[in-house]
Amino acid sequence: xxxxxxxxxxxxxxxxxxxxxxxxxxxxxxxxxxxxxxxxxxxxxxxxxxxxxxxxxxxxxxxxxxxxxxxxxxxxxxxxxxxxxxxxxxxxxxxxxxxxxxxxxxxxxxxxxxxxxxxxxxxxxxxxxxxxxxxxxxxxxxxxxxxxxxxxxxxxxxxxxxxxxxxxxxxxxxxxxxxxxxxxxxxxxxxxxxxxxxxxxxxxxxxxxxxxxxxxxxxxxxxxxxxxxxxxxxxxxxxxxxxxxxxxxxxxxxxxxxxxxxxxxxxxxxxxxxxxxxxxxxxxxxxxxxxxxxxxxxxxxxxxxxxxxxxxxxxxxxxxxxxxxxxxxxxxxxxxxxxxxxxxxxxxxxxxxxxxxxxxxxxxxxxxxxxxxxxxxxxxxxxxxxxxxxxxxxxxxxxxxxxxxxxxxxxxxxxxxxxxxxxxxxxxxxxxxxxxxxxxxxxxxxxxxxxxxxxxxxxxxxxxxxxxxxxxxxxxxxxxxxxxxxxxxxxxxxxxxxxxxxxxx
Length: 505
Hints:
It comes from Rhizobium paranaense. By secondary structure, this protein is α/β, with parallel strands linked by helices. It folds into 2 domains: 4-250, Rossmann fold, CATH 3.40.50; 378-485, Arc Repressor Mutant, subunit A. Helices cover 39% and strands 14% of the residues. Helix 4 (82-95) links the parallel strand 5 (74-77) and strand 6 (99-102). Helix 4 crosses helix 5, helix 12 (331-346) crosses helix 13 and helix 14 (379-391) runs parallel beside helix 17 (418-429).
């Protein structure tokens, strides 16, 4: 029975017909760069032929699973054992069910093994089940690479062998391969050479244009035309399509892919607490198991034998000791460990000039190294505690009402200024000399004395402090809301804790 399906519009406005019966005997190769419309072409072919022939789609990105809703394709998840996939493929042929093998979420080597097991399962079906099947393989260069890549040689040979069987020996078993690739140069030649029908889309590299022109029987000087093809436009050639190269425009489709080409859209307004959102870990991250993405390549047998020969045999197998669970800490012990880790970080003189986000990441790492249980403090709380520690307030000072008022007032300034505010407040509460510009600059994480003076001006503009000098020109900072002030201090004095005087810009 001869069945022609409409693939779109040919040059001259006529309908571009594809003979399904001829396609089953002669196979099809589709080539085009990313974004040229290959997946759209395959979807048009599958939709138009769904009622006439059984279909099996090898789908590495999970884009064709939407065919299930409209045309009843069975979706097979590739995350199974090779034996399970081979058995499913064999039953697919027996019961003539169209399906989509989705390999989404697997790494490249797992995809190759799953596709090979499934194709081999269909290939090995009993002769009584050799009904015609249209086998569509998207991104075929992944499963039949021209050269070895980062995957193991065993996986590459297994996948390449299955693709070769599909294209070279599948016709007698009713398997008609339709393969799509981004680049002909990346596809194994013995797989591509078995196709007699071609649909060539947009491509830019000279080697791919020349090879496409050769396959279509065109002069190499005409190969430049492949650069000018628009999205969804292809040049067709083959017994199931046209006896001469024929430009066609692929028609519309009824279903759509789950993923699509990216579209520009305005960025959302940045939240005020963007650093908190990014750097504060989710509590579930500490209990979530690590996901292993890649399967390591098998070790050579010679390496294993050499390692075994160097190993001394064990005299006796000692019974495994039961794993002792870590005892839970009391709230006081946990707080002591957290405070100790925080002190370790801030005791480093260089920590004053590192951002809170960087210090917070180091804090989290050290908590894990010390095996401190429980959910760590958040980034805002970490900043707050860093500001208090850097102020230098001791336990006696922190027990006073004046310090409690200072903490309450500090919540009204931004996170980056709390350290400077509490440094000045501590000096006022304890009656100490006003910190120098160099000391204030270090509390802010800078070497600039000018910036320190600007911070004092900012606090004074906000009404938080009053800055004045005594008769000798030394600076005094008063806190009206606390009712105390610093003693006179030299603004130009060196930072005894920082080592050198801050540079005046």
